[in-house]
Design goal:
There is one protein chain. The protein has 96 residues and is α+β, with helices and mostly antiparallel strands. It has one domain: 2-Layer Sandwich (Alpha-Beta Plaits). The chain has two helices and six strands. A four-stranded antiparallel beta sheet has the order 1-2-6-3. Strand 4 and strand 5 form a beta hairpin. It is globular, with a radius of gyration of 15 Å.
């Protein structure tokens, strides 16, 4: 990946995401499917100015969807759970 702003797609704001944020100082993001853990860590540290302890990733395969007779498939996504170091936090999630 060339640009760090292409690595991160969206924050994951779900019930599970808010629970892990409160309990374990972790934040979840949807990231580019081609991004590796080092690139994700570098992007988080540069964009938000925090120190990252660990990055865990998982691929979410696309699902088949139907609308009437036509059938399609949603795209495959990649999710990253980022563990921040003690005392660090990302401010965009504080108001959510």
């Amino acid at each position: 990946m060339k640009n760090i702003y292409e690595v991160l797609k969206d924050p994951v704001i779900t019930e599970k995401g808010t629970i892990i944020k409160e309990e374990g100082n972790k934040v979840a993001f949807y990231v580019d499917v081609r991004a590796n853990k080092k690139e994700i860590k570098e992007a988080i540290e540069n964009i938000f100015g925090v120190k990252v302890d660990r990055v865990n990733t998982m691929k979410i395969p696309g699902k088949l969807r139907r609308m009437g007779r036509s059938e399609g498939k949603t795209s495959t996504r990649k999710k990253a759970y980022v563990t921040l170091k003690k005392g660090e936090k990302i401010e965009i999630f504080e108001g959510v």
